[in-house]
Hints:
Distance between the termini: 63 Å
Radius of gyration: 21 Å
Strand content: over 45%
Largest sheet: 18 strands, mixed
Helix content: under 10%
Shape: elongated
Amino acid sequence: MAEPKTDSTRAFSEAWKRACSDPRPSVVYVPYGKFHLRDIAFEGPCKSNAIVVRIDGTLVAPSDYSVIGNAGNWIRFHKVDGVRISGGILDGQGTRLWSCKLAGKDCPNLHIANSKNVVIDRLSSVNSQKFQIAITDSQNVKLQRVTVTAPGSSPNTDGIHVERSSLVWILNSTISTGDDCISMGPGARNVWIERVACGPGHGISIGSLGWKFQEPGVENITVKRVHLSDTTNGLRIKTWARPSLGFVSNVLFHHVVMDGVKNPILIDQHYCPGHGQNCPSKASGVRVSGIRYKSIRGTSSTQVAVRFDCSKSNPCTGITMHDVALTYLGKEAAVTCVNARGTSSGFVTPLVRWS
């Protein structure tokens, strides 16, 4: 399709248009090699709901992020149904953008938007400029055997972000990044995460939530058989200290192993990443309930392994801890618990004194 350093955007766009306009099942094939792309949108709806995008090569983003400008995404699939993305490497070349973000500037990923029945299989995403893979306003999306890689110092490079979407599976994947390995924003529902390795990164997070007053809730989340290593957080729920009609309910964390995790179990309803500067100081309106921790074990790199810092006006309710064993330097770790109500059963250490 193109020689290295040749802009392949037009060729990809034309190949997609042909596949999308054909009512028969189609394959868009990317052979071995490097193919340079500007921002590109693969638009639907298509006449076929059986399109395979098979990638054997590497897709390379512009190293100069200003080329993408205000597009907000690098590669975007919009209003598609029945697309399967298989194999390949996405190289976001995010180094210059990360420097810009660290300088505090507002600077310009794979984005599945307004779509359904999408499969992403054996895809590798490297050094994305922002979120590595984002799923928004979509239904029935399965990601499996995905590899996400970025340095631990790269800002805002969430591995997989899910928002306003339902029936999302993230399976058998490995994520190393500079932000949340997996993040679930407002409106994430019916999400199943299983057999994922995370680290470095900021762990698996629900949130941040509650920045807006009118905001859809997060519910029916399952996280199973996950391994977190050397992450700044483990299993985290984070909400802003602002009025909100948002909520988090029916969440299960099951069979999770942690190695050297800074904050293994955390509900933070006073979330503010600004190191105490310009942080909202009201009570969080986000209601957190029905959070279950089962068969969690491992080591904390800080003394406090479990921290429930819940809203004074909306205390966390229905938290259950069953067979949780977290240690610090070979000894029992500590707990802080504020405005949280729940129960413990089985062998639980450190033991939570519910408030």
